[in-house]
What does this fold into?
Amino acid sequence: MATIELKVPDIGDFDSVEVIELLVQPGSEVQLEQSLITVESEKASMEIPAGNAGRIKELKVKIGDKVTEGSVIALVETLDAAQADVGQAIAPTSKAHATPDPTSNGESTAASNAGVAAPVTLAAPAAPASESRSAHADLATGTGVAVTTAEMPTSAAAAGPAATTRTPPVQPEDTDTAVIVKPHASPSVRKFARELGVDLSTVRATGPKQRIVPDDVRAHVKAVMSGEVTVAAGRMPAASAGVNEAGAGLGLLPWPKVDFAKFGPIEHKPLARIRKISAANLHRNWVMIPHVTHHEVADVTELEAFRVTLNAELSAGAAKFTMLAFLVKACVHALKHYPEFNASLDGDQLVLKQYWHVGFAADTPNGLVVPVIRDADRKSLSEIAAETSTLAKLARDGKLSPAQMQGGTFSISSLGGIGGTAFTPIINAPEVAILGVNRTSMQPQWDGKSFVPRLMLPLSLSYDHRVIDGAAAARFCVHLARLMADFRRVLI
Ligand code: CAO
It folds into this structure.
């Protein structure tokens, strides 16, 4: 057993950086490269890793101390003498590195994507560090920002002749920016928060200089669990969101707590199970998908006349031809023409589906459900009409099986039987578009010479703007409206 000093390694141009966090205590066993302390400069905070494994005998720094290269952080008892021989000075070429933890790297990248975290460039007389550079496009701002990561020696003795561009041991966390207000927290606190799924922008900081300390994260989790604080529903996985994982915290106020009984009589009614499930899904989809709704009107004068004629010819008991059935058929045609509407986002890939399963929102006493008409492209209009009627009845009776609600590639939400002129249907994730339909009304239309009464059907297409552009949505709707205006076009 030998006692050696663990020192601050070469940290580049930083003369004197403040210790803001102690990550080990006397008695702690540390592994090689385990973080010992967090230091903070004007621009960045970084964790200083151990150049030796062993047991911490004594800490030589405390919070608030200023350290520089060579400052002794702690005395450590190595587990055997052999290690001490190696440990005092890790050779410049040895792989004494603090490769950023992939998750921590991800978050730093996120910060950089926001255009705020500049890589720290050090002209240091040290061994060349391996460097990797990657550019990440920031979809939110449309900018590409270079992020540098590097390995570096952990020992102060790791000096060599070559000048190089390097970063500190751990990807720096930007702490000071005028562009985006990023929560002020050390890498280890960020890691801790990530493990717990806590969005640091929602955490109240109590540390010095508005710094979030581990206890703040714990207090936040406690408050959320006890219902004292509410947070926005889930966060978009970085890949499929196309935005940084840290995201911009919504920074919402807690939900108002009101004693309603103070103002008049009240009654408590538990939410039905379906409503709770659909509410959670709708909330997630609304928050996570950048919705835009495009509005169009289709002249269905001839189609409605045709529908009435067909229904008049029906034999007893046969399912009525509904506007919904025509819409399903027309939508399949439009989806084939514009395949990105029959797709899902999977990370940075678009999954274009070669099947056309159309869901339709069904209003039930217990909430909204979306049964799916599978292979709508292969079914006749009367088959679709019969199936929607069967599925709608099953839905109202609460007898839909999960399989009957799965696999949809596009949805239709029809309020045509009720009214309205337009609305914003919420996309049924992981689909990328949904068509809302309102009640037809007779309206004057200009035919070039005079106004004529025409039966107009309002269409509202909500689409995921990450996948679909406004122009594509407009084209899709024009295409759909033309089909509805002259249904013979569906055959083409
Ligand atoms: N314009 C005018 N009338 C319409 C119409 C339209 N766009 N769509 C339907 N109608 C008429 C029908 O012709 C029918 O009239 P008749 O009884 O005289 O024949 C009447 O309205 C009722 O139709 P319906 O709504 O029962 O049948 P449907 O096939 O059109 O719709 C279903 C079935 C399951 C979609 C519907 O019952 C339903 O649940 N709609 C609500 C969906 C919903 O809640 N969406 C909102 C979700 S939030 O995004």
User: Anything to note?
Assistant: Confidence is low (pLDDT under 50) at residues 81-181, 233-247. The first helix runs from residue 81 to 87.
